[in-house]
Design brief:
Layout (H helix, E strand, L loop, with lengths): L1 E3 L6 E3 L6 H16 L10 H7 L6 H7 L1 H7 L2
Antiparallel strand pairs: 1-2
GO cellular component, one term: cytoplasm
Organism: Toxocara canis
GO molecular function: ubiquitin protein ligase activity
């Protein structure tokens, strides 16, 4: 469902098709944690939250998530 970047240690979607119910259950888990004032570390990059808020992304967002791949675009 999610994969961790070896360099940044942030997580992103794996790209492998996953059952939609798994995403729903993950969302319920996050909501329950917030509701119960439990701090859970979800190491998503800023780009994840920008997508939720429908904000545009930049190469700086890619640099945060995957510095190695971002360097290919900064030449």
């Amino acid at each position: 469902m999610f994969v961790e970047d070896d360099e940044s240690h942030l997580i992103w979607f794996s790209g492998v098709e996953t059952d939609p119910l798994s995403f729903k259950l993950t969302g319920v888990l996050c909501a329950l944690a917030i509701y119960n004032n439990v701090l859970v570390d979800f190491p998503f990059p800023l780009a994840f939250y920008k997508k939720i808020l429908n904000q545009s992304l930049s190469l700086d967002d890619l640099d945060e998530l995957s510095p190695t791949e971002a360097r290919l675009y900064f030449f």
